[in-house]
Design brief:
By secondary structure, this protein is α/β, with parallel strands linked by helices. It folds into two domains: 101 residues, Rossmann fold (3-Layer(aba) Sandwich); 126 residues, Rossmann fold (3-Layer(aba) Sandwich), CATH 3.40.50. The chain contains ten helices and nine strands. It comes from Hemiprocne comata. Keywords: Heme biosynthesis, Lyase, Porphyrin biosynthesis. It is an enzyme of class 4 (lyase).
């Protein structure tokens, strides 16, 4: 998508994920009758389920009855990437146009009755409290289970140093998560030095933009929706405004 605007994009992996509590996750998935539905705000939560389903006995149980029983309940998702993974495990996503946790929380509250069965929320250790807080205030029960931990990618520093030494200061840097900002920004600041003001920083959504702002970095672009198309258009507009 960026290439269509004549940009050359370099992808640098920032995060590594360690999956945890998978037995607890499948134990909960084995009891759909205890829950009103599922909530996913990250593709990693679906990856955790897919790892569970690599086990033959678990896969049989899922295919035989669990998938059908969960299919009768809503599977709320925050965006398209997560939605496509929900479809891969045989469920139907709802709310994928939300784009962020705040809007997804509003969507869920508009469809769930207060004090009904809890929604199961497999999530990461660094999850924000926005969605749980909004649902709690509206009386919608959410049962969170941490199924992955986020750490800095082992090659991050080396990858960034290599990029800057070979290609110089980038026209734009895009962040896709607050964790990415936390692990990456200090290295970029060090490598850029006084030239950091030349870089247009982009954030995939409001949460990431908030993390950049909190670190004192002006955000040149936050796309209207977290899609490749809107991101590319937003970067084009931000760079065009300063004739890059």
């Amino acid at each position: 998508e960026l290439g269509l605007y004549g940009f050359e994009a370099t992808l640098i992996p920032v995060l590594s994920f360690e999956f945890i509590s998978l037995e607890s996750l499948f134990e909960k998935l084995s009891h759909p009758e205890c829950y009103g539905g599922l909530v996913f705000t990250s593709p990693r939560a679906l990856e955790a389920i897919k790892i569970c389903l690599k086990d033959n006995s678990k896969n049989k149980a899922w295919s035989k009855s669990l998938k059908e029983r969960w299919h009768a309940k809503p599977a709320y998702v925050v965006g398209k990437a997560t939605a496509s993974l929900v479809e891969e495990i045989g469920l139907t996503p709802q709310g994928e146009k939300s784009g962020n946790a705040e809007k997804l929380a509003e969507y869920i509250c508009s469809r769930e009755k207060p004090n009904s069965s809890a929604l199961l929320f497999p999530c990461g250790a660094l999850k924000r409290e926005v969605l749980p807080t909004v649902l709690r205030e509206k009386g919608v029960h959410l049962e969170s289970l941490t199924v992955y931990q986020t750490t800095q990618h082992s090659d991050l520093q080396e990858s960034l140093s290599s990029y800057f030494s070979q290609q110089g200061i980038p026209a734009s840097v895009v962040f896709f998560s607050p964790s990415g900002v936390r692990f990456c920004l200090q290295h970029i600041q060090k490598l850029s030095g006084d030239l950091i003001n030349q870089i247009k920083f982009a954030a995939i959504g409001p949460t990431t933009a908030e993390a950049l702002g909190g670190a004192g970095i002006p955000v040149g672009c936050t796309p209207e929706t977290p899609t490749p198309q809107d991101l590319a258009a937003g970067i084009q507009k931000a760079l065009h405004s300063q004739n890059c």
